[in-house]
Design a protein that fits this description.
Elements (H helix, E strand, L loop, with lengths): L7 H10 L1 H16 L1 E2 L9 H7 L10 E2 L2 E2 L5 H18 L3 E3 L5 H12 L5 E5 L21 E5 L10 H11 L3 E5 L9 H11 L2 E5 L4 H5 L13 E5 L10 E5 L4 H12 L5 H13 L3 H23 L13 E5 H5 L3 H10 L2 E2 L1 E3 L13 E5 L1 H5 L4 H16 L4 H16 L19
The structure holds pyridoxal-5'-phosphate.
Pyridoxal-5'-phosphate (PLP) binds next to helix 5.
Length: about 425
């Protein structure tokens, strides 16, 4: 077997042929190793994923689907795509799976074009209440084609009032209703949404991009078990695969979805990405991964509890999944951008985030968003979450105290040393494929 993936030989060549990119790669390995990653959409992929992303599958054009391709030489690509599709259907209990979307936005757009007509109404969650750009925010191209309407969460507790969702749905008559978010720390009432969709004759979609891995690991509910028509998920967040998107749906929608992805939106699928998705979908069936998914939620609970005890104002008052949002403006008198920068200086990476109906603009919003998937992938547990909360609280109370931030940076670094990043051997910035 020949595998040059992230091998010493390939790295050696890179160092000689492009020192600038090589240096950036080494620095990024160090940054990822020595800081705590709390961006809830980020994670450390399985080391096997690096092997496949850097493999010869990168070289292959495979327009079409297994058994129906527009290029020859598909005996191995058909094998991997069939495995990826079969595993996706089994893991998510779906009638049909398409594993070709290049990213999360592309997968959602493929659903809209596959199942709807231009001008149709789509009901999704307001972005400042937790929804995602790709659910038709006015700045996106999709908003020029479809008519998006919104539901919001109720303040101050931040939960979704299904009676209000039903009222908007009955008034606007959407053809598609979306349950999905990138910053909503609560579970959806999937059965309640199914009822509303049935009442108003809409198709029902869940975008579980953030939650895909937690659903696969059995830690959260699976919308497909509640009769959803379509479910989309990115493959690189809690799922710990390569960057990409996946569409799961009822069998009856399969042909339309496939046609929308190819030839509707994309050309050649990224077969190295699909090979890595296939392997990811095998790895998430292990007991180890199920334990990981459970621990992600336990860590989020533990972090929430410690932050609340320290005076942080959590949007919705807590979390039921992997992510948390703090209103830094009310709790600490600082905007999210200030908090993000100060925490970065202390070695903790997260992102500034709007809060529901935020009075501040998106670049200087009132909150921060963070989550536990990446820290948990390093093996951190509830004891580390207590320490992390303590560091975060000290930063948020004194974001301009540079001496304190430097001291806390050392505390973070020491903590990280005890929990190596999967796929990076500490002190040897190379050979990721050799790591456990
Ligand atoms: C809910 C949701 N949908 C879609 C996407 C888009 O994914 P991508 O960045 O891969 O296009 C994201 C990414 O953050 C997301 O959180």
């Amino acid at each position: 077997m020949t595998n040059f993936t992230y091998s010493a030989a390939a790295l050696d060549r890179l160092q000689k042929s492009d020192a600038e990119i090589f240096d950036a790669l080494m620095h990024e390995e160090t940054r990822q190793s020595e800081g705590i990653e709390l961006i809830p959409s980020e994670n450390y992929c399985f080391p096997e994923v690096y092997a496949l992303l850097g493999s010869v599958f990168n070289n292959k054009y495979s327009e079409g689907y297994p058994g129906r391709r527009y290029y020859g030489g598909q005996e191995n690509t058909d094998t991997i795509e069939n495995l990826a599709r079969d595993r996706a259907k089994a893991v998510f209990r779906a009638g049909h799976a398409n594993v070709q979307p290049l990213s999360g936005c592309a997968m959602n757009e493929a659903v809209y074009f596959g199942l709807l007509q231009p001008g149709d109404v789509i009901l999704g969650m307001d972005l400042s209440h937790g929804g995602h750009l790709s659910h038709g925010h006015p700045v996106t191209n999709m908003a020029k084609i479809f008519k998006y309407v919104r539901y919001k969460t109720e303040q101050p507790d931040g939960h979704i009032d299904l009676d209000k969702v039903r009222a908007v749905a009955m008034e606007t008559k959407p053809k598609l209703i979306i349950c999905g978010h990138s910053s909503y720390p609560r579970e959806y009432d999937y059965a309640g949404f199914r009822k509303i969709a049935d009442e108003c004759g809409a198709l029902l979609m869940a975008d579980v991009s953030h939650l895909g891995g937690l659903i696969a690991g059995g830690a959260l509910k699976n919308p497909m078990d509640f009769g959803f028509d379509v479910m989309t998920t990115t493959t690189h967040k809690s799922l710990r695969g390569p960057r990409g998107g996946m569409i799961l749906c009822k069998k009856e929608h399969g042909a339309k979805i496939d046609k929308s992805v190819f030839p509707g939106m994309q050309g050649g699928p990224h077969m190295h990405q699909i090979a890595a998705i296939a392997t990811t979908l095998k790895l998430v069936q292990s007991q180890d991964y199920k334990n990981y998914a459970k621990q992600v939620l336990a860590n989020a609970q533990s972090l929430a509890k410690a932050l609340l005890a320290g005076g942080a104002h959590l949007v919705t008052g807590g979390t039921e999944n992997h992510l948390l949002v703090i209103n830094t403006a009310t709790g600490f008198g600082i905007t999210g951008d200030v908090a993000e920068k100060a925490l970065d200086a202390a070695g903790i990476t997260l992102n500034k985030n709007v809060i529901p109906d935020d009075p501040n603009p998106p670049m200087k919003p009132s909150g921060i968003r963070f989550g536990t998937p990446a820290a948990t992938a390093r093996g951190m547990g509830e004891a580390e979450m207590q320490q992390l909360a303590s560091i975060m609280l000290r930063v948020l109370r004194a974001p301009e105290d540079t001496a304190l931030l430097a001291k806390l940076r050392e505390e973070t670094r020491a903590m990280c040393k005890r929990f190596p990043v999967p796929g990076i051997i500490p002190g040897t910035p190379q050979t990721q494929s050799a790591a456990a």
